[in-house]
Write a structure and sequence with these properties.
It is a single chain. Strand 8 (127-137) and strand 9 (140-149) form a beta hairpin. It contains no helices and ten strands. It is mostly beta strands. It has a ten-stranded antiparallel β-barrel. It has a single domain (11-29, 37-164), classed as Calycin beta-barrel core domain (Lipocalin), CATH 2.40.128. It catalyses: peroxynitrite = nitrate. It is an enzyme of class 5 (isomerase). One of its GO terms (molecular function) is heme binding. Heme b binds at residue 157.
């Protein structure tokens, strides 16, 4: 198994070491109205010696060939692993909500589900729950994000394959 442990990484983060770095690529999604879309994404996981990774993700809606991508959304947050291979992730989303996810680390696979969501009054979408799957496949970061809102049950929302840059 190809597991990286970046230099200076807090030993408590070893199980997440493979995530550290910058990832870019494209993906597909279905919006809250059920319309399909394509997007470009940049994700960065980094560390500062603490017992957490910090995370930032930016997505851009891809339009017609040659058109400039349009900002779609941004997330930032913290990934905090526990000694028993569980994981707590706190994410703030530019659409007006903050989500606490909990899950399990299984070598290069991470399964997360929503524990709590707090929405601002002006939230763009009434996000109420989610689940995420992250994995390292052939050196790439692959993920799938399912989302529920007050208008629909949990369903696929975004999925992508990103390359380390």
């Amino acid at each position: 198994m190809d597991i990286e442990v970046p230099e200076g990484l807090n030993p408590e983060l070893t199980a997440l070491g493979w995530l550290v770095g910058r990832w870019e690529g494209t993906g597909n999604g279905t919006d809250h109205d059920g319309k399909d879309f394509e997007f470009e994404q940049r994700i960065e996981f980094n560390h500062n010696g603490g017992d957490y990774l910090y995370y930032a993700s930016q997505t851009f809606l891809l339009g017609e060939e040659g058109a400039e991508p349009t900002p779609l959304g941004m997330e930032t947050g913290f990934w905090r692993p526990k000694p028993d291979a569980t994981l707590e992730v706190t994410i703030a989303n530019s659409d007006g909500w903050t989500e606490l996810l909990v899950g399990k680390i299984q070598v290069t696979r991470i399964d997360l589900r929503t524990d709590a969501v707090v929405r601002a009054e002006g939230a763009v979408v009434s996000h109420s729950a989610g689940q995420r799957l992250y994995g390292k496949v052939e050196g790439d970061l692959m993920y799938a994000l399912d989302r529920a809102t007050t208008e629909h049950d949990l369903r696929p929302h975004m999925w992508a394959r990103l390359k380390r840059v």
